[in-house]
Amino acid sequence: MAATEEAYCEESRLSRILSDSELALWHANLAERSELTADIYARRLDRFCEEFRRTPKDLASLDPKGAYKMLIDAVQHYRGRNLRGSTIKGYVKPVISWLAHNDVTLTKKVYVDGANSTPTLRGEKTPEPYELHSVWRFCDERQAAAIALEAFAGFRPQVLGNYRATDGLLISDLPEMEADNGSKKINFKLTPPRVIVREELSKEGNQYEGFLCEEGCTRLAKHLEKRMQLGETLGPESAIIAEDLGEGRVLTTKSMYEIVKTPFRHAGLSWRPYILRRYFATRMSQAAGKPEVGLLESWITFWMGHHGDVEATYRVKKELSESLLDQMREAYRRASEMLQTTGLHRETNSQVRREFRAEAFISAGYSDGEIKSLDLDKMTTEEFRELIRKRLKLNAVGEAPTKPRQLIVKACDARKYINTSASEWRVATTLANGDVVIEQLR
C-alpha cells in the first residue's frame, strides 16, 4: 500500500471511531493526557474490531469473564501470526482501556510474553562524537539545529514541536539568547545559555531546564540567522525550529523526526532520532564519573525532564537559585567537552590543568565527592598547593608525620629514586600529564 493510501486509511479509521459519541468521549478523555496516545488507541481499537469481526459496542457489552476469555483468544490468534509480544500488547491495551471506560473491569491479568521486549534495539549502539560529527555534512541549517538541540541538550523531538504543531520550543524559551532582526544576528548574553522546557512541552508534565553547549549555539544561530536573512522577523513567539520560509510557526513531532532522520539516512546510518537523547545521557553520565567536572547525576536527571530531587524543588519554587544555576552552568560547560564533536583531538589548557589537579587530589587522599565540590578552574595555584599540603599534613621541611612522604617528579627522574638496591621510594601513581607520584617507604 502506498504511503498516501495508508495515511488515508488511518485517518478513515480515526474518523469512524470519532463518529460515535461514546467512543469520542473515550477518545477525548485519553487526549487530556496525550493526543497522540488517544489517536493511536482509537485506530488500534478499530483494527482489533476489524480483525475479530466485532464492533466496539460488542466489546462493551461483554462481562468481565467473557472479556478475559476474548482477550486470551486474541493473544493466541496474534501469536499464530508470529507477531512480537510488544506488538500484541499494543493491540490489547486499547481494548482494555475501552472496556474500562464501559465499566468492564478485568479481575485477572492478561499476560503477553515479551510485551516489553525491543529486539530491534538490542544491537543499537550509542554513537561516539566522531560518528555524530560525520552527519553534519549531510545537514542543512535546520537539520543541524534540531540534531544539536536533541544531542547536546537531551531533548525529545516533541519538545521542539508537539503532535499537532500547536506548540513547541520558542525564542522566549531561551531567555539568554537575543535575536537582532536589524543586524540579522543571534547573540547569547551568557554561555552556555539556559533552555526552558515548559510543562506543556514536557512528556511528564513538569517544567524543567537545560543548557546548550558552544557547538549547539553555533548551529542553532546559523539556522535562525538564515531565517532572518530570508525575510522572517523573529520574535518571542517564533519557533526555534520552524517551517521552511514560514512565519516562525512550529512543526509537528512527526516532522521533527523526519528532519533528524533524513541526514542519518543520507549518511548511511540506521539510527533512530531518539538515539540522540541516548547520546546525551551516555556522554553526560561519563562526564559525571570524572570528579574534576563537578557534575551530579541528579542534575542530569533534571536536565532530561525526569522526576527527581532537583525537579521536586523546582516544581515548588518555579526557579533555581542563582548559586545552583551557576554551579549547574559551570558543570555543564565542563561536561560539554565530552558532548561536542568539533575539536575532537584538541585538549584545552583548562582541561589539562583540571585533570592534573584532580589526579593530584586523588593521590593526596581526596574522595570523588570532595573533588566534585571544588572549583578546579577558578582555584589559584596557591589555593591548590595549600589544599594538598593540608591533606598530606606536611610540616615546614616536607616531612609527613602521619603519612608517607610523597613527591611529584618527572617520569625520567623517578628512576633516580626507585632504581637502586637501597631504594626507600616506590611509585604511588601516575598523573594525567605523565608525571609520577612517588612515596617514601617507612
Mean pLDDT figure: 86
**How many DSSP-defined strands?**
7
Per CATH, the class of the largest domain reads Mainly Alpha
The low-confidence parts are 395-401
Shape: globular
Helix content: 40-55%
CATH superfamily membership of the largest domain, which one? Intergrase catalytic core
What is the CATH fold-level name of the largest domain?
hpI Integrase, Chain A
Largest sheet: 3 strands, antiparallel
Order of helices and strands: HHHHHHHHHEEEEHHHHHHHHHEHEE
Counting helices, strands and paired strands, the structural category is mainly alpha
- Total domains, how many? 3
CATH architecture title of the largest domain: Orthogonal Bundle
Strand line-up of the largest beta sheet: 5-7-6
Radius of gyration: 29 Å
Strand content: 5-15%
> What is the straight-line distance between the termini?
81 Å
Our count of helices gives: 19
How would you explain this protein's 3D organization?
The chain is mostly helical and 442 residues long. It folds into three domains: 119 residues, no CATH class; 221 residues, Intergrase catalytic core (hpI Integrase, Chain A); 92 residues, no CATH class. Helix content is 50%, strand content 7%. The chain has a three-stranded antiparallel beta sheet with strand order 5-7-6. It has a two-stranded antiparallel sheet with strand order 1-2. It has a two-stranded antiparallel ribbon with strand order 3-4. A hairpin with a 4-residue loop joins strand 1 and strand 2. Helix 2 runs antiparallel to helix 3, helix 5 packs antiparallel against helix 6 and helix 8 packs across helix 11. The relative contact order is 0.07. About 2% of the residues have low confidence.
